[in-house]
Each structure stands twice: as structure tokens, then as C-alpha cells.
């Protein structure tokens, strides 16, 4: 690990100032991603601004929905009674990720900002455009089993590894951000980027911006929902493919639908084509298969991840069946 | 703001305050083992992937390898050394011995701390749920059946669970 100076922020403004004047300064929250990357020198901040003492860990229900402080720990969010009753899909998604110890440490802000698990990104001996812009991408011609099937570019085919963010994408979350130039609200769909020509940027967050909270709108999806995660072992592994499915069913017809996929793109992948097919249809297996088939039509797999296409299709159908059977 | 390159740090471990002078790079795990000399907490992967380094912070289980010691001032850290009272084992330690919850023993301090943390969180009752709640602790010797049996026994001893 490279040397760095450590600063403990006592309020939001000093936290933001602490990273604004230095490109290589970083916030640290749970540390579960950043310390890991610092150990292998993929991240080399020269200053860490500890934000864990900021009063940003409240989870509050209000008339518009739910506000989740950026420093709420993943386990506190998943087990929060309001979240369990109004947003059980989010709870299920979080509990599918990492381990109890890690969820006790990991924060909501850190989870949004966690970096890809691409093995070449994690290995400083390999060329990687995300880590070292212009160096090339070892994954495109390499062992790309865990990589993207949607929205990749010829610069980077990495995936975003989060489960929580897939749940947030399905629930139309908004990310509240504070920065040197004021505050802004970023819809979750715009928060993470596709790699394009600048794969080094995972999100639209600027260096001098701090995530302060996530807002969830009131949700009709507390009854028919399912988070399905397919991985190499039963627990404590990242998703090969995951699906957050949520339906609002009225009089035997689907009134609203949300499908978001994890492990398949540089960001949580909302399957809008599937949602369009589902809305107005009956919740039958035929409808679900049609929605899944339409989703994978735009898939572009690589040499070692072709299996993900069929897996994504079946996972969408299975998640929707499970969501329907919940009521 | 506190700003420093080599800092003085007060860590409360097992009820005792320790004054340390450390580089901010030192993980909580290394501070416990190398600076304070509490070597019961083990280093397996050092990357958050095995659970050998599990300790309790304010009663909650965490991986001490993926976090910095400087971030844990003003908290209560509990390690495996704190569980037995003299010669009297903690019920979880006794249950691990009774049910053969280990073979080589390397993962065991982490398993036991995790199990104690799990009971404090409110433990689900069936074996499948206990396994899921213990998924953050890998055992290379695969002593899993004994570990689950040990946790079940201690869980049932606790009247309100
Ligand atoms: C072994 C292992 C298995 C895992 N398995 C899974 C899994 O299955 N599913 C899953 O979803 N995740 C998994 N994770 C990842 C885990 O969820 C993330 O590491 C965690 O959510 C990061 O949160 P943190 O608070 O620890 O972030 P940190 O490590 O503290 O920070 C990560 C990044 O976020 C930035 N940051 C933190 N807070 C803010 C803020 N408020 N505003 C702006 N920037 C901020 C930091 O500067 C840093 O760049 C796993 C991790 C490990 C180590
Ligand atoms: S896929 Fe992206 S992260 Fe992985 S090696 Fe290529 S550029 Fe780097
Ligand atoms: S040593 Fe910390 S999880 Fe393996
Ligand atoms: S007892 Fe050997 S690793 Fe668990």
C-alpha cells in the first residue's frame, strides 16, 4: 500500500474540501472496496478523507417515499423494518451480496461507487483501460467469463458488481449529491455510465462531490417482487447474472413492471423492452418468455461468456415466476 | 479535522485502552496482531474473502483486514481473547469443542466471533439459514456440520431466541 495522509472529516463541507483540491484524494467509508484496491495498488490515493463520522446514516420514511443516508450500513438498510415492508426487493438484493461481516461495514455510498471485479483491472501487471487509460483491454481477447453482454465498448467490457444497485435501478432511486458547486439529484439510471471511450469513469460523480443520500419514490412493488442471483456458489460470490423483477398486478393484468439485470453490463441494466411487453399483459409464463427473449436480442457476448445470454433469459423468466407466486 | 501522517491512536480492545503510534496504512487486523499482540484473530486471505479475521465492533461482526485501525477510535473492539473468563469457556467455544466444529483450527477464532455476532443479531432457527448467515466464514477443513450444530446448541440455550 502506498503512503497516504488520513483526515477525519467532521462536517460535509470540510469533507468535500478535503478531496476537491486534490485529484488523488478519496473519501473512505466502510473501506471494503477501497482498502482492497489499495492493497493491490490499483487505487493509490495520497489522502483519505474518513467520512464515517458525518451524520448521514439515517433511514427515514417520508410522504414521497424513503430517504436513505449515504452512510447507512448495508445490513442496517436491509433489515430496516420500513425497507422490509415497503421495499422488500431492495432488502433481498442487499442480502444476496457479500457476507454479513462485509454488509455490517459497507455503506450505501460505497456500494454505489464500488469498482468492477474484472480480474485484469485488479492485476496491475495486465493492460487495462479502466485503470490506465490507453493501455488496452486484456479482457476483450482474454478470459472474459464474468464480463458484459450488454452496452460494452471496444475499450472496456467490465461489469458493475453491485447487487444493491440492481435493486435501486428497479425501484427508480435518485442519488442526492453535494459538491463544491452545490447540490444535485441524479436518477440512478444516469448515475453509472457505459464505458464508451472513457472507461476510467464508472459514474457521473465529480471528484468534489459527496453522495449524501438515496431517495426512493413510493413503490407499488412490495407484493410481487423477486431478486434472483445466479453465481458460482450458493453464497458469498458475485453475480454471474442477477435479476430484480417487480410487478404490480391488478385484476389479473400487469399494470406496472420493472426488470433490472446485474452482472451483465457496466451499469445495472434496465430491460425496458421487457417492461413494455409485460405492461398490459397477463402474468403468464408465455408473457415472461417473450419479455426475456426480447431482452437478450441486444446481447453481445464474448468468447467465454456466451452462457450468460441463455442464463439471463432463464433468470428473467424464473424471477418473474417467483415474483408472481409471492402474492 | 484531524490530520496526521504518523498518528497517535487510542484503541479500546477487550475493555482495555491501548495507546498506539501507527502509520495510517495499518489495518485493524495488523494493529491487533502486530501492535497489541492479540494473535488470536487470524489472517487468512487479508482481502475480505474468508472471515478468519472476524472481530466484533460495538457488538457487530466485521472483517478486520479490510479496514484501517485509525477509523476505530471511540469504539469497543472485542476479539476471541475476551470470550473465555479465565478457565471457563464461552458457551460458543465449549459447543465448538463438543461438536467438532473445527479440524486444523485456523478459521476457528473467526468462526466463533462470527457465531457470537450472529446470535446477537437475532439468529434464524433452521440450519439452512444459519449456514447462509455464516457464509462469510470459510473453513478449508470443511467443519461446517459441526459449526452449525454448535451454533444450534448455543442458540437453543438462549431463552428468548
Ligand atoms: C469478498 C467480497 C465480496 C463481495 N461480494 C459482493 C456481492 O456479492 N455483491 C455486492 O453487491 N457487493 C459485494 N462486495 C462489495 C461490497 O458491497 C462493497 O465493497 C461495498 O459496498 C463498498 O462500500 P464501502 O462503504 O466499504 O466503500 P469504500 O471501500 O469505503 O469506498 C468505495 C468507494 O466509494 C467512494 N465513496 C464511499 N462513500 C462515498 C460517498 N458518500 N460519496 C462519494 N464517494 C463515496 C470511496 O471514495 C471509494 O472510492 C463484496 C466485497 C468483498 C470484499
Ligand atoms: S474489461 Fe475494462 S476493466 Fe477489464 S481489463 Fe478491459 S478495460 Fe480493464
Ligand atoms: S483475513 Fe480478513 S477476510 Fe480473510
Ligand atoms: S478448521 Fe481448518 S480451516 Fe476451518
Overall description:
The complex is a heterodimer of chains A (327) and B (161). Chain A contains twelve helices and twelve strands. With 327 residues, chain A is α+β, with helices and mostly antiparallel strands. Chain A folds into three domains: 1-53, Uridine Diphospho-n-acetylenolpyruvylglucosamine Reductase, domain 2 (2-Layer Sandwich), CATH 3.30.43.10; 59-113 and 160-217, Uridine Diphospho-n-acetylenolpyruvylglucosamine Reductase, domain 3; 224-324, Enolase-like, domain 1, CATH 3.30.390.50. Chain A has a five-stranded antiparallel beta sheet. Chain A has a four-stranded antiparallel beta sheet with strand order 9-10-11-12. In chain A, strand 10 (241-250) and strand 11 form a beta hairpin. In chain A, helix 5 (88-95) runs antiparallel to helix 8, helix 10 (272-278) packs antiparallel against helix 11 (285-296) and helix 11 packs antiparallel against helix 12 (307-325). The longest helix of chain A has 19 residues, at 307-325. Chain A is globular, with a radius of gyration of 19 Å. The model of chain A has no long low-confidence stretch (mean pLDDT 97). Chain B is α+β, with helices and mostly antiparallel strands and 161 residues long. Chain B folds into two domains: 7-81, Roll (Ubiquitin-like (UB roll)), CATH 3.10.20; 91-157, Orthogonal Bundle (DNA polymerase, domain 1). Chain B contains five helices and six strands, in the order βββαβββαααα. Chain B has a five-stranded mixed beta sheet, with helices on both faces. In chain B, a hairpin with a 2-residue loop joins strand 2 and strand 3 (16-22). Chain B is globular and about 45 Å long. The chains are: A alpha+beta (327), B alpha+beta (161). The structure holds flavin-adenine dinucleotide, iron/sulfur cluster and FE2/S2 (inorganic) cluster (FES) (2 copies). The site of one FE2/S2 (inorganic) cluster (FES) has 11 residues of chain B, from loops. Residues 43-46, 48-53, 63, 65 of chain B line the site of one FE2/S2 (inorganic) cluster (FES).
Amino acid at each position: 500500500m502506498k503512503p497516504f495522509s488520513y483526515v477525519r472529516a467532521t462536517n460535509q463541507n470540510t469533507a468535500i474540501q478535503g478531496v476537491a483540491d486534490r485529484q488523488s484524494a478519496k473519501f473512505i467509508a466502510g473501506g471494503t472496496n477501497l482498502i482492497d484496491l489499495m492493497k493491490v495498488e490499483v487505487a493509490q490515493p495520497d489522502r483519505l478523507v474518513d467520512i464515517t463520522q458525518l451524520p448521514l446514516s439515517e433511514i427515514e420514511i417520508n410522504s414521497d417515499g424513503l430517504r436513505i443516508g449515504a452512510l447507512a450500513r448495508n445490513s442496517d438498510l436491509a433489515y430496516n423494518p420500513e425497507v422490509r415492508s415497503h421495499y422488500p426487493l431492495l432488502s433481498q438484493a442487499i442480502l444476496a451480496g457479500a457476507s454479513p461481516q462485509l454488509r455490517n461495514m459497507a455503506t450505501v455510498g460505497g456500494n454505489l461507487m464500488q469498482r468492477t471485479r474484472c480480474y485484469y483491472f485488479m492485476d496491475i501487471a495486465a493492460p487495462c483501460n479502466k485503470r490506465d487509460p490507453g493501455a488496452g483491454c486484456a479482457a476483450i481477447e482474454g478470459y472474459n467469463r464474468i464480463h458484459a453482454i450488454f452496452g460494452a465498448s471496444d475499450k472496456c467490457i467490465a461489469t458493475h458488481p453491485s447487487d444493491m444497485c440492481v435493486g435501486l435501478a428497479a425501484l427508480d432511486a435518485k442519488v442526492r449529491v453535494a459538491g463544491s458547486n452545490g447540490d444535485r439529484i441524479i436518477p440512478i439510471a444516469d448515475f453509472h455510465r457505459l464505458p464508451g471511450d472513457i472507461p476510467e469513469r464508472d459514474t457521473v460523480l465529480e471528484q468534489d462531490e459527496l453522495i449524501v443520500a438515496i431517495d426512493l419514490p413510493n413503490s407499488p412493488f412490495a407484493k410481487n417482487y423477486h431478486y434472483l442471483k445466479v453465481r458460482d456458489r450458493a453464497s458469498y460470490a458475485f453475480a454471474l447474472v442477477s435479476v430484480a423483477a417487480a410487478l404490480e398486478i391488478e385484476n389479473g393484468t400487469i399494470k406496472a413492471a420493472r426488470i433490472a439485470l446485474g452482472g451483465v453490463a457496466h451499469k445495472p441494466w434496465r430491460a425496458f423492452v421487457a417492461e413494455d411487453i409485460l405492461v398490459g399483459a397477463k402474468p403468464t409464463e408465455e408473457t415472461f418468455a417473450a419479455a426475456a427473449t426480447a431482452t437478450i436480442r441486444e446481447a453481445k457476448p464474448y468468447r467465454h461468456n456466451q452462457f450468460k445470454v441463455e442464463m439471463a433469459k432463464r433468470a428473467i423468466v424464473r424471477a418473474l415466476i417467483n415474483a408472481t407466486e409471492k402474492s | 479535522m484531524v490530520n496526521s501522517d504518523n498518528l497517535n491512536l487510542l484503541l479500546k480492545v477487550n475493555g482495555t485502552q491501548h495507546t498506539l503510534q501507527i502509520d495510517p496504512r495499518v489495518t485493524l487486523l495488523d494493529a491487533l496482531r502486530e501492535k497489541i499482540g492479540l494473535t488470536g484473530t487470524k489472517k487468512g486471505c487479508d482481502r475480505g474473502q474468508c472471515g478468519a479475521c472476524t472481530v466484533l465492533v460495538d457488538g457487530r461482526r466485521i472483517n478486520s483486514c479490510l479496514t484501517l485501525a485509525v477509523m476505530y477510535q471511540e469504539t469497543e473492539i472485542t476479539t476471541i481473547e475476551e470470550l473465555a473468563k479465565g478457565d471457563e469457556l464461552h458457551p460458543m467455544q465449549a459447543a465448538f469443542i463438543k461438536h467438532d466444529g473445527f479440524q486444523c483450527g485456523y478459521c476457528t477464532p473467526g468462526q466463533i466471533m462470527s457465531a457470537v455476532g450472529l446470535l446477537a443479531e437475532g439468529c434464524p432457527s433452521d440450519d439452512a439459514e444459519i449456514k447462509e448467515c455464516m457464509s462469510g466464514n470459510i473453513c478449508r477443513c470443511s467443519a461446517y456440520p459441526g459449526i452449525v450444530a454448535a451454533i444450534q446448541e448455543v442458540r437453543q440455550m438462549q431463552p428468548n431466541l
